[in-house]
């Protein structure tokens, strides 16, 4: 299930690296002491959409929004209740409207644009490595992460496969700073083969690592 959150106009510039502040709002609505914070995230959320980019930062307008998706409908209900209690997001911006969207019916193959960069990380020889879209094993790692979440949700992980769209000519990496830590993430569509249920699950929970802090959301 997905909720689209329309935003109020900003009255002052918002920092370009706003991701940690947006994450803070989402976690506030879920509840800081919620059990979901200590488990792999079965939810994802996009970056801000339809914004104005200024020299000094970004600004929201009447068309600005972002979305939050979750396989667990209880999380969605908790978030909606949280917004009703406190609709503030950050820097004077608040949620002005909530629109509910049911999970679409998918086929056995789908291609998705990303609503936030896809982040893949692994440990190698004692250090954290960030995997780019053109790494030969990137699809293997994306598949592994999705399979882990499928098993956590009690859904079969057999025969599901995730990969970047190698034919997309504008694919690129971008270093995203989250609380002053650089994360090399990927801006490239992803392709998913699997059952309609597996693909619907991915559409809700996102792909890659760190979906709970604003990476890997799918349009």
What's the quick description here?
With 219 residues, the protein is of the alpha+beta class. The protein has four helices and 13 strands.
By DSSP (H or I, 4+ residues per run), the number of helices equals 4
Strand content: 25-35%
Number of domains: 2
CATH C-level label of the largest domain: Alpha Beta
* Separation, N- and C-terminal Cα atoms: 13 Å
Main sheet summary: 6 strands, antiparallel
Alpha-carbon Rg, integer: 17 Å
Fill in the CATH topology of the largest domain: Alpha-Beta Plaits
Q: Shape, please?
A: globular
What's the β-strand tally? 13
Low-confidence spans: none
What share of the residues lie within helices?
10-25%
SSE order, one letter for each helix or strand:
EHEEEHEEEEEHEEEEH
Question: From the coordinates shown, what is the CATH architecture of the largest domain?
Answer: 2-Layer Sandwich
Average pLDDT figure: 96
Structural class designation: alpha+beta
Describe this structure in words.
With 219 residues, the protein is of the alpha+beta class. It has helices at residues 19-30, 73-85, 138-152, 196-205, and strands at 2-7, 43-45, 49-54, 57-70, 88-90, 93-101, 109-112, 121-124, 127-130, 161-164, 172-178, 181-187, 190-193. The strands form four sheets. Strands 1, 2, 3, 4, 5 and 6 form a six-stranded antiparallel sheet that branches. The chain has a three-stranded antiparallel sheet with strand order 7-13-10. Strand 8 and strand 9 (127-130) form a beta hairpin. This is CRISPR-associated endoribonuclease Cas6. It comes from Arcticibacter tournemirensis. Belongs to the CRISPR-associated protein Cas6/Cse3/CasE family.
């Amino acid at each position: 299930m997905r909720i689209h959150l329309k935003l109020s106009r900003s009255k002052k510039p918002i920092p370009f690296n706003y991701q940690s502040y947006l994450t803070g709002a989402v976690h506030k609505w879920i509840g800081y002491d919620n059990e979901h914070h200590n488990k792999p995230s079965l939810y994802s959320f996009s970056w801000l959409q339809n914004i104005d980019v200024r020299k000094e930062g970004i600004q929201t307008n009447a068309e600005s929004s972002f979305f939050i998706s979750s396989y667990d409908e209880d999380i969605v209900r908790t978030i909606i209740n949280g917004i009703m209690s406190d609709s503030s997001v950050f820097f004077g911006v608040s949620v002005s409207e909530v629109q509910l969207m049911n999970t679409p019916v998918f086929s056995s193959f789908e291609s998705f644009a990303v609503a936030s960069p896809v982040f893949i990380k692994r440990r190698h020889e004692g250090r954290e490595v960030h995997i780019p879209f053109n790494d030969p094993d990137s699809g293997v790692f994306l598949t592994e992460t999705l399979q882990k979440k499928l098993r956590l949700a009690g859904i079969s992980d057999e025969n599901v496969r995730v990969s970047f769209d190698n034919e997309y000519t504008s694919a690129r990496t971008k270093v995203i700073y989250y609380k002053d830590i650089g994360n090399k993430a990927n801006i490239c569509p992803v392709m998913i083969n699997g059952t309609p249920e597996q693909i619907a699950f991915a559409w809700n929970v996102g792909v890659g690592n760190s979906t709970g802090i604003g990476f890997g959301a799918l349009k």
